[in-house]
Specification:
The complex is a heterodimer of chains A (about 350) and B (about 500).
Chain A lengths: L1 E10 L2 E11 L4 E5 L6 H9 L6 E6 L2 E4 L11 E4 L11 H5 L7 H9 L15 H14 L4 E5 L7 H18 L3 E5 L2 H7 L2 E6 L2 E6 L1 H6 L4 H6 L4 E7 L4 E3 L2 E3 L8 E7 L4 E5 L6 E8 L3 E7 L5 E7 L9 E6 L7 E3 L6
Chain B lengths: L7 H21 L5 H38 L5 H13 L2 H11 L5 H6 L8 H26 L4 H8 L4 H9 L4 H17 L2 H6 L4 H10 L3 H24 L17 H33 L6 H31 L1 H15 L2 H14 L7 H25 L3 H9 L4 H30 L2 H6 L7 H11 L6 H34 L1
Helix pairs in contact in B: 1-12, 1-14, 1-15, 1-16, 2-6, 2-9, 3-6, 3-13, 3-22, 4-6, 4-13, 6-9, 7-8, 9-12, 11-12, 12-16, 13-22, 14-15, 14-17, 14-19, 15-17, 16-17, 17-19, 18-19, 19-22, 21-22
The chains are: A alpha+beta (about 350), B mainly alpha (about 500).
Pfam families (chain B): BPD_transp_1 (PF00528)
Organism (chain B): Parahalioglobus pacificus
Family (chain B): Belongs to the binding-protein-dependent transport system permease family.
Chain lengths: ~350, ~500
């Protein structure tokens, strides 16, 4: 349980987090994602009490902290997993995990659950990155926090390790029945792990919703562009559909009439052999393994991307016809008023 | 968080105490008369000349050795570094004493071997001795700068057609200028502050004249000279603070593999320096020991030295904790730390003059050991603070945060995380203060209670009385103590290296 209301954080005169509010249900995992410097780590530190808030209030289980009366971190009963793990180098694994425990049973429980028994008495310097990550997680969980904060926990690890650990951590959180906020800059991590996803930009939450909604119904262009690749096709909304260079596109997403832009991700487009009607020309292509990514030029000069299966290959210079996937209801934004 | 660190009040008191000598000297100083002015110009000339010659000499020797120890993969690399850095650990007055006694028509070489070598004295002698004992400043700062440079630029320069020496000159040294400058200024600072070397070589510098005035019971004039010297010291410190730091991405340093002929010629260049700076003093003192034994020496000198230095080391360690914490807490604390560095820049003879006056004003302190210990602490506290801070800053700041989030109060986090991880730095810092205090000469001469003879003061009395042979035991003991100091510093450097390497592996 956590409620964040109208929180701002300032570093000197710079507002890093601006008037931000949300609540977290018990045993919910919230993923926070955003570009570098968007304030996501600062928000996490503010919730932990490591950074002072300048406005608003943060309330957890049995405490409420506001700008006037800050609650120190040790009185918040939150757990935190740091980006660089922050294991105490002078203490063994078990002493790290049981740092402030009088009864060591929870430490033993998490050490065995995360498969660290053989490393019980090792010093952190001897551990590999993945092992350090598990110790850091065990330490946080063994202290039985009422909320766990994870600050880019996988960013210091090899790609191969990430995929496994991602779900290992998620399972541990669900096993502990803990609510958690997990900061990441990895898109696929953001989309695949959490119950809800918050997309941050410039100190504010642009959207807070389920990962599916954030991806398919982004609240604005920023969210659309940040989560995956996005083609924005200009068009004219007539009420029955949207007239675009690619033909009439229908969607249940009811936009205002007039100029709009339709969000079509590269995966949403299908590339066909031109049947006389030329809609685009292949500018280049790159083979990606299970898919092929085409860069295509529309007659208006707009460049878009399409990702298809490798079944049928086009070559640069080929004329093609494009269509959207039939069942797709793309998101539509009112067109940018600013002339480009 | 805008909160005043609880360490600030204590740190502020320490910082104010560090400025005490300046205040005292200001009160004490008499308006100089005209005669003094003319003499002062000569003093100023001598002092600046000595500092300048020392800086140039230490660059000339220090930079080539820095290149050698940083980039050339020599056999027994560690030994080269230790031997070439060793002169720094030796107080230069030991060297000056040995040079003075060894050379010249009635020197030991003439007496023992019948070879008369021109005497080493005066400005040239002082500059030579000073250079021999300060070039490691330049060598070490330059070496550190060289090691932080990535080799790829040199490789690029050579692939573009530049010879190795030309690429070192055009591509490497310009980027190490800051390190060279910092080392040269340290050497100049040492030359400005040192009392023993110019005194033994008979060069009238500020430090020597302050001692002369002190012995003539004119503390007022000594204070004027002290203030003038402090202005020069302040100027050098200012210059040093102006050296802009350029940070480059650290990379793998250049490694050159010499042929055995090249190694031998490098050894042929290094050998005379090591012979003069290390072997000569040790040889002379050993000769005296063999010839005259330990006549006149009392064990109590060792105990006195060790006792005063132990007190200084202990106090410095205790005071260093709040100071280092304050320095890490914020800009105000950093400023206070800078103030304590003032004591480090104050020459021992100046510190002595100021505290003698304090003793005269406060009879309860006069001629007490505490006053001497206070002088040591004020001079050498920055060593302890620096050592502690370097270790403490090496600690990942998220460790303390992690402890706090796990439920530890700031106090518990300090006791269980920060302190255990900095203990090594604290002990090393206290040991440095201890060793420096053991070897300190001028402040000890002025402040030691009557009858409280230490190794350094005994050596000085022997020199003044002309019983050179009796310098054998204190001289060798001081060399031994210096060797311990060197080992301590180098082991710290080595740990730094290892820690760095471990980090790279991760």
């Amino acid at each position: 349980m956590l409620s964040v209301s109208n929180v701002s954080v300032e570093y000197g005169s710079v507002r890093v987090v601006r008037d931000l509010s949300f609540t977290l249900q018990s045993d919910e995992i919230l993923m926070l994602v955003g570009p570098t410097g968007c304030g996501k780590t600062t928000l996490l530190h503010a919730i932990a009490g490591l950074v002072a808030i300048s406005e608003g209030s943060i309330g957890g289980e049995g405490w409420t902290s506001c700008a006037k009366a800050l609650v120190p971190p040790e009185q918040r009963n939150v757990g935190m997993v740091f980006q660089d793990f922050a294991l105490f180098p002078h203490l063994s694994v078990i002493d790290n995990v049981a740092f402030r425990l009088k009864d060591r049973a929870p430490a033993d429980h998490w050490i065995s659950l995360l498969g660290l028994e053989t490393l019980r008495d090792a010093r952190p310097a001897r551990l590999s990155g993945g092992q350090k990550q598990r110790v850091a997680l065990a330490r946080a969980l063994a202290h039985e926090p009422s909320l766990l904060l994870l600050d880019e926990p996988l960013s210091n690890l090899d790609a191969a390790l990430k995929d496994n650990l991602r779900f290992e951590i998620r399972d541990a959180l669900k096993e502990a029945g803990l609510p958690a906020i997990w900061v990441t800059h990895d898109q696929s991590e953001a989309l695949s792990v959490g119950d809800r996803l918050g997309v941050m930009n410039a100190g504010q939450l642009e959207q807070l919703d389920t990962p599916e909604h954030c991806f398919t119904r982004p609240a604005n262009r920023f969210v659309a562009g940040f989560l995956g690749e996005a083609n924005l096709i200009p068009g004219d909304s007539t009420g029955t559909g949207i007239k675009t260079e690619l033909g009439l596109i229908t969607t249940d997403h009811s936009p205002a009439l007039g100029s709009v832009e339709v969000l079509l991700r590269p995966e949403d487009l299908q590339v066909h052999v031109s049947d006389g009607e030329v809609q685009a020309r292949v500018a280049s292509l790159s083979f990606e393994g299970s898919t092929v990514l085409y860069r295509l030029c529309l007659p208006s000069g707009l460049e878009i991307k399409a990702r298809t299966s490798t079944d049928r290959r086009f070559s640069p210079g080929d004329s093609v016809r494009l269509s959207k996937r039939p069942l797709l209801n793309p998101a539509v934004f009112a067109a940018n008023k600013m002339p480009v | 968080m805008i909160r005043i660190s609880p360490t600030y009040p204590l740190a502020a008191v320490i910082a104010v105490c560090a400025l005490l000598p300046l205040v005292v000297l200001g009160i004490l100083a008499e308006a100089p008369d005209g005669l003094l002015q003319a003499r002062n110009l000569r003093l100023l000339g001598n002092t600046l000349l000595l500092a300048g010659l020392t800086a140039c000499g230490s660059i000339a020797i220090g930079v080539p050795f820095a290149l050698l120890t940083a980039y050339v993969s020599l056999p027994l690399q560690r030994l080269w570094l230790v031997l070439l850095a060793a002169p720094l650990a030796l107080p230069s007055y030991i060297g000056a004493f040995a040079f003075f006694a060894a050379f010249g028509p009635s020197g030991e070489f003439a007496v023992t071997l019948g070879v008369t070598i021109p005497s080493v004295e005066g400005m040239a002698g002082a500059a030579l001795v000073m250079t021999l004992y300060t070039y490691p400043f330049v060598m070490l700062t330059t070496r550190a700068a060289l090691l932080s440079l990535d080799a790829s630029q040199v490789h690029a320069a050579r692939i573009l057609g530049l010879s190795l020496s030309a690429s070192l000159w055009q591509v490497v040294l310009p980027r190490a200028l800051r390190g060279i400058g910092a080392g040269a200024l340290l050497a100049a600072l040492y030359a400005l502050s040192d009392f023993g070397t110019p005194a033994i070589m008979g060069v009238d510098t500020f430090t020597r004249m302050i001692y002369v005035e002190y012995n003539a019971f004119s503390l007022g004039r000594a204070a004027v000279l002290s203030l003038q010297l402090l202005v020069i010291v302040g100027l050098v410190l200012f210059l040093e603070s102006q050296l802009s730091s350029t940070s480059e991405r650290p990379g793998r340093a250049l490694a050159l593999y010499p042929t055995s002929a090249q190694t031998l010629s490098a050894a042929a260049v290094a050998l005379p320096i090591i012979l003069l700076a290390l072997a000569l003093p040790i040889g002379i003192f050993t000769l005296w020991l063999w010839r005259e034994g330990s006549a006149g020496f009392e064990l109590s000198y060792v105990w006195n030295s060790a006792y005063a230095a132990l007190l200084a080391g202990g106090f410095a360690a205790i005071l260093a904790i709040p100071m280092a914490l304050a320095a890490m807490a914020g800009p105000a604390g950093r400023f206070m730390e800078r103030l304590t560095y003032f004591g480090f820049g104050v020459p021992g003879i100046v510190m002595g003059t100021a505290l003698v006056y304090v003793g005269l004003q406060l009879p309860s302190l006069y001629q007490t050991l505490m006053l001497l210990v206070a002088a040591y602490v004020m001079r050498f506290l920055p060593l302890a603070v620096g050592s502690l801070r370097a270790t403490a800053e090496g600690i990942d700041e998220s460790l303390v945060k992690a402890a706090r989030v796990l439920g530890a109060t700031p106090r518990e986090a300090f006791m269980r995380v920060t302190l255990p991880l900095t203990r090594r730095g604290l002990i090393a810092g206290a040991a440095l203060v201890f060793l420096e205090s053991m070897r300190e000469l001028p402040a000890t001469l002025l402040l030691a209670p009557t009858g409280f003879e230490t190794l350094a003061t005994y050596l000085w009395r022997v020199y003044e009385a002309g019983y050179f042979g009796r310098a054998a035991v204190p001289g060798l003991l001081l060399v031994l103590i210096s060797a311990f100091g060197l080992m301590l510093i180098l082991s710290g450097e080595q740990q730094g290296d290892t820690a760095h390497r471990e980090e790279e592996c991760n």
